[in-house]
Each structure stands twice: as C-alpha cells, then as structure tokens.
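Hi U.,

Before I forget, here's the chain from the pilot set. I'm dumping it here mostly so it's searchable later in email.
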Amino acid sequence: MHLIQCGARKSRVLSRLKGIIYMSLDKEAVKKVASLARIRMDDKELELMAPRLSKIVGFIEQLSEIDTDNVEPLANVVDVALPLREDVVTDGDCVKKILANAPEEAQNYFVVPNVIE
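Structure:
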C-alpha cells in the first residue's frame, strides 16, 4: 500500500466499491496533488475530485498486483518487422526546388527579416 503524504499527515484509509479495494484520498491530499500539478481548484472541485482520484489510485494498485515475472518486455504490440531501405548518402541537390517556395532568396539562401537589431 502506498501512502500519500500531506505535510505531517498520512492518509491510509481503505474503502470498498464494487468489489475493488482502493485508497481513499481526502480533500487535503487532493489539494496537495493539485498544488504540485499547479492546478487551481476550489473547495467544491476538491470534493468532487477526491473519490475520482481514489478510484484511479485503486486501479493502479490493482495493476501492481499482477504477476508479470514471466512476461517479456514488449516493444511493439504487433510482431511486425519494419521495412529497411538502403542507406545512401546524397547531397540533396534540390536547392532550386526548395528556394522556389521562398518569398525572397539571395545567393542560394532564404532571406528573412532581422530579429535582433
């Protein structure tokens, strides 16, 4: 069980909802989390968010109980090899095509207005 610390106070209250055990976060814990996330919330919003965040924490706690010892790390959900192309070095040789889009060019460079004077 993970504890959320609010100053010197720790909240470790277990509740039961639809068969799921979850950690109950009080208004002060939600206020601390909101403060850390730089989210301004009034008292009414804090009261509404407390049970919602408690459910989220409970779901995460449930996931931590899953035995993943024999599960290999997954890099891709589909077992597909990416197509490879030959690595060829080129100089691009498309300066004229690129500069055709420029509103103004000089000596094969884009001309832009001064930013710093």
